């Protein structure tokens, strides 16, 4: 065996032994929310298609129409990849989020890495919530700034880190980055209080709105994300990263903010500059999705379903995390038991995410149940019945749980 093969085999064996091996299922099509998974029809409660727009006929029709403009954009934005449809989408995203301007990126991962790397360097300090998404963590690594972390949503811990950062250097740029809706917990960051602390310590604030855009907003802009939801001005929350691949049902991402920030990122964000622009079809489909998300009806339906899910879970004695969003995890703790419950649910006809470390901290493996506006109350009740049965069949062994 070559040393490369030996290295790979050892790492895979380690992962298998820890019950952390990933085995992605193969689906015939995106869930509607029904999914054909390896020949079986399952009801999916795991996608990020919170509004059910990925399979909406208006979105698909707009996407197909835009495909006539070219299967691909054929180049980066700065060369010849920037079509009228991209410009229209950027303008619409700015409008929906209540910001002056927006800039497209190919993925949320790239948007986070590119924006952070463009704004910070080695002399600077980045302050992150401990449960931030991997792409924010990698952005922090890439820019080379000093990394300070604070306990999840703990404002006192954040202030301690801000004080520490300012004491270290009066002149460093300090960036505070948080998920606005935490992807594996579903709870919201206390952004108004975080913004206040940022103002006090002259730190910049960036929110990752991947799970917020489209889902939360204001009555005027129901799809507007966390800035709209909390009523935060561009000055209070200057940098918003949103994705197109979750509630908007498509693919890609954007950063929204002041016209100056967006011009700066167009010039300096390497993950925007050195990559092919999104296919025109994606821009066309996303514009249609934004129109559908703009009326607020889908978000209202989703809220009704979230309330229904929570009250019906409580009625069955199922403990939930304190989330008011479409992400409704059930904390299990042990990886093996999480997998067993996930498999039991699959046998009963349901698909939920069994999330294990390193995606979540050790000892906090969980079922990540997500709701979509296209689910029905009856489907939710059926899932909860199956979940109650699976939980009672897979009770924790006394003393075996890490949490
Ligand atoms: N941020 C968060 C909070 C996410 O959950 C994700 C996707 N899992 C991303 C960023 C990355 O977005 P994308 O899938 O568009 O790369």
TrEMBL record:
Reaction(s) the record says it catalyses: 6-carboxyhexanoyl-[ACP] + L-alanine + H(+) = (8S)-8-amino-7-oxononanoate + holo-[ACP] + CO2
Chain sites annotated for binding pyridoxal 5'-phosphate: 108-109, 183, 211, 243
Sites where the protein binds substrate: 22, 133, 359
Keyword field: Biotin biosynthesis, Coiled coil, Pyridoxal phosphate, Transferase
Modified residues (N6-(pyridoxal phosphate)lysine): 246
Reported cofactor(s): pyridoxal 5'-phosphate
Keyword Transferase: yes
EC number: 2.3.1.47
Domain Aminotransferase class I/classII large: 42-387
InterPro entries reported in the protein's UniProt record: Aminotransferase_I/II_large, AON_synthase_class-II, AONS_Archaea/Proteobacteria, AONS_Proteobacteria, PyrdxlP-dep_Trfase, PyrdxlP-dep_Trfase_major, PyrdxlP-dep_Trfase_small
Coiled coil: 148-175
Enzyme class: transferase
Purpose of the protein: Catalyzes the decarboxylative condensation of pimeloyl-[acyl-carrier protein] and L-alanine to produce 8-amino-7-oxononanoate (AON), [acyl-carrier protein], and carbon dioxide.
Family: Belongs to the class-II pyridoxal-phosphate-dependent aminotransferase family. BioF subfamily.
Known partners and oligomeric status: Homodimer.
Protein name: 8-amino-7-oxononanoate synthase
Organism of this sequence: Biformimicrobium ophioploci
Classification lineage: Bacteria, Pseudomonadati, Pseudomonadota, Gammaproteobacteria, Cellvibrionales
Gene: bioF
